[in-house]
């Protein structure tokens, strides 16, 4: 929690103006009087330094700027989603998984596409690589390949990152986006 004006407990503080000018180290009472004479607030910026750093500024404006910075930080981190295929993934499941990949890419997330071999599938690892190459071919309008399909033990994986929004073209329609409309049977019963 940010301390303001009389709630600042430190006996001495380093004072900085809103425009960046440094006023130096002074007692917290002197700093409060200086802020009050300018019609502004004394806001504690970093409490852990010795002495704590305080800024003379409008507290409401400072609070607004901090909330804008927090919102920007939360949305800026790209997330990594993972989709797993099998060598013998059926067509419907393949289409569903590809639509999910498109959805994740459309949200701006990177997607790790993986495939794990089981049992006798280990003898035909080229089939797994073919499945991932098919995914790459189907995602040409949505993604760029950051890491091409790589074989590591019993797994093959690759990494896709989204194209810029203006270049994205969806090939699969997401099954989750379709609206289910239930017909109203009560009108028939009343007649």
List keywords for this structure.
4-stranded mixed β-sheet; 5 helices; single chain; 8 strands; Translation Initiation Factor IF3; 191 residues; 28% strand; 2 domains; elongated
pLDDT < 50 stretches: 174-191
Structural class: alpha/beta
Task: Report the span from N to C terminus.
Answer: 65 Å
- Indicate the proportion of strand residues: 25-35%
Whole-number mean pLDDT = 84
Instruction: Specify the helix fraction band.
Output: 25-40%
Number of strands: 8
CATH homologous superfamily assignment of the largest domain = Translation initiation factor 3 (IF-3), C-terminal domain
- Report the major sheet: 4 strands, mixed
Total domain modules: 2
CATH top-level class of the largest domain: Alpha Beta
Could you name the CATH topology of the largest domain? Translation Initiation Factor IF3
- Order of strands, widest sheet: 2-1-4-3
Assign an overall shape.
elongated
Radius of gyration from the CA trace? 29 Å
Task: Give the number of helices.
Answer: 5
What's the architecture of the largest domain in CATH terms? 2-Layer Sandwich
Strand-and-helix sequence, N→C? EEHEEHEHEHEEH
């Amino acid at each position: 929690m940010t301390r303001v004006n009389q709630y600042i407990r430190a006996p001495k503080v380093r004072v900085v103006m809103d425009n960046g000018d440094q006023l130096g180290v002074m007692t917290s009472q002197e700093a409060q009087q200086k802020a009050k004479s300018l019609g502004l607030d004394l806001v504690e910026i970093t409490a852990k330094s010795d002495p704590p750093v305080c800024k003379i500024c409008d507290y409401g404006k400072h609070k607004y700027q901090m909330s804008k910075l927090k919102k920007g930080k939360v949305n800026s981190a790209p997330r990594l989603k993972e989709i797993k295929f099998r060598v013998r993934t059926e067509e419907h499941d393949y289409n569903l998984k590809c639509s999910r990949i498109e959805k994740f890419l459309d949200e701006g997330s990177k997607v790790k596409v993986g495939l794990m071999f089981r049992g006798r599938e280990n003898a035909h690892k080229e089939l797994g690589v073919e499945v991932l190459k098919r995914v790459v071919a189907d995602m040409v309008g949505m993604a760029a390949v950051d890491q091409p399909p790589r074989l590591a033990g019993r797994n093959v994986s690759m990494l896709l990152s989204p194209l810029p929004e203006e270049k994205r073209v969806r090939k699969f329609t997401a099954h989750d986006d379709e609206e289910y409309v239930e017909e109203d049977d009560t009108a028939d019963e009343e007649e």
